[in-house]
Write a structure and sequence with these properties.
This protein is α/β, with parallel strands linked by helices. The chain is 42% helix and 18% strand. The chain contains 9 helices and 10 strands. A hairpin with a 2-residue loop joins strand 7 and strand 8.
């Protein structure tokens, strides 16, 4: 008998709903919030209010696209964290109410685990599923981690940022350059036309497999402060090389630790996940490494890289199969544990 899962994602500023039939996505609907562009970053209160406006239309549209009735659903899976508390509460409250109304199980999903399990969505355009055990570099606006994945739900963080996340660094540097939010994709776009070796930025010296990006942000800030004193138009004249150099530095920091993790663990199956996995430079670096080091590389389909409910639905599907349900009293959490 087929299993239908409704996935709900509301951890930050995207309201998303997906319908999954077994391990295949029938619909994956995302409503973005443009209001944050005016503030140069996500405003939590505005995000939660927008989720309240978007969640019912998004869920209705997902069911409509999937061509199923809500009474066919077997379970409701929702993001329970980490993320913005107000945003998470909207998704959690809706999921709880719908599961009660339909009398079907409620499944809570860890947002970061879901990014990883997005690799197991059945999709003709997505390569083969990763083989256990594998390493996964999870990179987003709020997290940067190297995780050892032994099974669908046996995951261990073996390296993580001690301060800022890589995605946050992209956006903060973009803001320093005067680019609109979100700046990460803009830096990626301009980097394709720039010289990645034009400007040398320092790499942090952090022991083990951990990362640090706060020093890079400070370095870029001071570098541009000094150049702008000499030439007020420096950024505009050099934005392509600036973007390429910053992106190259961030990717090299990530890849250096990932190579070290692969060497220490002896694991040659390596994946990337999270919003920054959509970055073209990182994707190219992974493909190059597969040729140099013989890694079997897994890169998610673009639409499963950024925040989406499809990844919540597939994670909910595997938890549903093992009977791992949530109680109505479950509360959202804001930080990764």
């Amino acid at each position: 008998m087929d299993t239908y899962i409704l996935g709900i994602e509301s951890s930050c500023d995207d309201t998303s709903a997906a319908v999954l039939k077994n391990n295949k996505i029938l619909a994956n609907i995302i409503a973005n919030q443009d209001v944050h562009k005016f503030y140069g970053g996500v405003v939590p209160e505005l995000a939660s209010r927008a989720h309240q406006q978007n969640i019912i239309p998004v869920v209705h549209r997902a069911l409509d696209v999937a061509k199923i009735n809500k009474n066919q659903l077997n379970a409701i899976a929702f993001t329970n964290g980490p993320g913005l508390l107000g945003s998470l509460l909207v998704g959690a409250s809706f999921a709880k109410s719908l599961s009660l109304a339909l009398n079907i199980p409620l499944v809570e999903v860890n947002h970061m685990h879901a990014h990883i399990l997005a690799h197991f969505i059945e999709d003709e355009q997505q390569p083969a599923n990763p083989e256990f055990p594998f390493l996964c570099l999870t990179v987003s606006g709020g997290h940067t981690q190297i995780m050892l994945i032994r099974d669908y739900f046996d995951m261990e963080v073996i390296g993580q940022t001690i301060d800022d996340a890589s995605g946050e660094t992209f956006d903060k540097v973009a803001k320093i350059m005067g680019l609109p939010y979100p700046g990460g994709p803009l830096i990626d776009k301009m980097a394709r036309e720039g010289n990645p070796h034009a400007i040398k930025f320092p790499h942090p010296k952090i022991a083990g497999l951990d990362f640090s990006f706060s020093g890079l942000k400070t370095s870029v800030l001071y570098f541009l402060r000094d150049r702008l004193k000499e030439d007020p138009d420096y950024i505009e004249k050099n934005k392509l090389d600036l973007s390429a150099s910053v992106q190259h530095t961030i990717i090299e920091i990530l890849m250096t630790k990932l190579r070290k993790a692969a060497k220490e663990t002896g694991i040659r199956h390596v994946a990337i996940a999270g919003g920054v996995s959509a970055n073209s430079g990182l994707r190219q670096a992974m493909l190059r490494e597969s040729e140099v080091s013989g890694w079997q590389v897994y890169i998610p389909k673009f639409e499963y890289s950024t925040d989406n409910a499809a990844m919540i639905a597939i994670t909910g599907y595997y938890k549903y199969l093992k009977g791992d349900y949530a109680a109505q009293g479950v509360t959202p959490f804001t930080r990764y544990s």
